[in-house]
User: Fold this.
Amino acid sequence: MASATLLFLVIFAVNVLPAFAPPTWMILSYFGLHYPDASPWVAAGVAAVAASGGRAVLAQFAQRIVDSRFVSPQMRDSLSEAAQAIAHRRTASALGFLLFAFSPLPSNVLFLAYGLTRAPLWLLVGPFFVGRLVSYAIAFLGASALSQHFELELSFSDSLLYFVATQLALLVIVYGFAKVDWRRVRVEHRLRWLS
Assistant:
């Protein structure tokens, strides 16, 4: 029980961070390597609840940034246009978020960008929870199976370089998302940047 509580707290804290945090599947895999007899669905459930809650807090943080003086009215209007497009295509948006959640791709960028739009959070958090529940169970089962057959040795420097490079690239993507003129994209069907 103490290990499940620790798993929840670590994953929640990591998912509140906007960048430079290890991916949740990596933490869950580590947990699976060290506790191979634990229930994969209980571990995945704890991880999915913690990750979804942490990412919801991150998205709310992004929503507060939009309301701050650091965001121009022009950018705020453009992000509102993106929120309206998401709201008008709820089923397609939820399906897209679900498919994303099945992947091991970092979700910090998705929640930051989504939070900037101020679209309804449940539309992202619900599908994210379902997708991550399944993908985390697979990560846990994979790590448990590997721990029984192999001794793994990972290069810290290679992992760190990859991690830092991807986090910087993803932050650039969030900035680019916020600079798109979404109203002109919707009307003209061409990518335009805010001036």
User: Anything to note?
Assistant: The two ends are 53 Å apart (CA to CA). The mean pLDDT is 82.
